[in-house]
Amino acid sequence: MQKHSKRYSNSRVADIDLNSVDTEEKKKESQNNFVELLPPEVTLNIFRRLDIQSLCRASMACRSWNDVIRNSDSLWKPHCLTVRAVCQREIDGDLESGYSWRVILLRNYQKSKVKHEWLSGRYSNICSSISLPEKIMYPMDADTWGEILEAELER
């Protein structure tokens, strides 16, 4: 009976130690997470310095980073304005519709990449849809195709 109670008490000690290790790890994670330590203005200033790919990767690092990045519309505005250089009509229309900067960027980023390639003449030598590259072409509306056609006719 004494052996059993001794074994039981050792396992209780092990449980307590494991719980304290978990708590210590959480404290260390919290101490290493600048989002939880710094004032919000400083955190946003750090994230503002990231390019769009880095910002998206940072949002996947942990929940607290994701919350800050996802809910800070001001982080997305500069990237959205860069895309606006190619998709002005689309961005302005989304702004008038009341979309957030993050949503506007999500709606127009891929389109801006494909549209930029078309407008820069990358596909000027294509004679048929068979000649198109295998990469996915973003669906575009009639107005966008009109802009591309005008650019091609001017070339």
Automatic annotation (TrEMBL):
<dbReference type="Pfam" id="PF12937">
    <property type="entry name" value="F-box-like"/>
</dbReference>
<keyword id="KW-0833">Ubl conjugation pathway</keyword>
<dbReference type="InterPro" id="IPR001810">
    <property type="entry name" value="F-box_dom"/>
</dbReference>
<keyword id="KW-0963">Cytoplasm</keyword>
<dbReference type="GO" id="GO:0016567">
    <property type="term" value="P:protein ubiquitination"/>
</dbReference>
<comment type="pathway">
    <text>Protein modification; protein ubiquitination.</text>
</comment>
<dbReference type="GO" id="GO:0005737">
    <property type="term" value="C:cytoplasm"/>
</dbReference>
<dbReference type="GO" id="GO:0019005">
    <property type="term" value="C:SCF ubiquitin ligase complex"/>
</dbReference>
<feature type="domain" description="F-box">
    <location>
        <begin position="32"/>
        <end position="79"/>
    </location>
</feature>
<dbReference type="InterPro" id="IPR036047">
    <property type="entry name" value="F-box-like_dom_sf"/>
</dbReference>
<comment type="subunit">
    <text>Part of the SCF (SKP1-CUL1-F-box) E3 ubiquitin-protein ligase complex SCF(FBXO9) composed of CUL1, SKP1, RBX1 and FBXO9. Interacts with TTI1 and TELO2; when TTI1 and TELO2 are phosphorylated by CK2.</text>
</comment>
<protein>
    <recommendedName>
        <fullName>F-box only protein</fullName>
    </recommendedName>
</protein>
<comment type="function">
    <text>Substrate recognition component of a SCF (SKP1-CUL1-F-box protein) E3 ubiquitin-protein ligase complex which mediates the ubiquitination and subsequent proteasomal degradation of target proteins and plays a role in several biological processes such as cell cycle, cell proliferation, or maintenance of chromosome stability. Ubiquitinates mTORC1-bound TTI1 and TELO2 when they are phosphorylated by CK2 following growth factor deprivation, leading to their degradation. In contrast, does not mediate ubiquitination of TTI1 and TELO2 when they are part of the mTORC2 complex.</text>
</comment>
<dbReference type="GO" id="GO:0031146">
    <property type="term" value="P:SCF-dependent proteasomal ubiquitin-dependent protein catabolic process"/>
</dbReference>
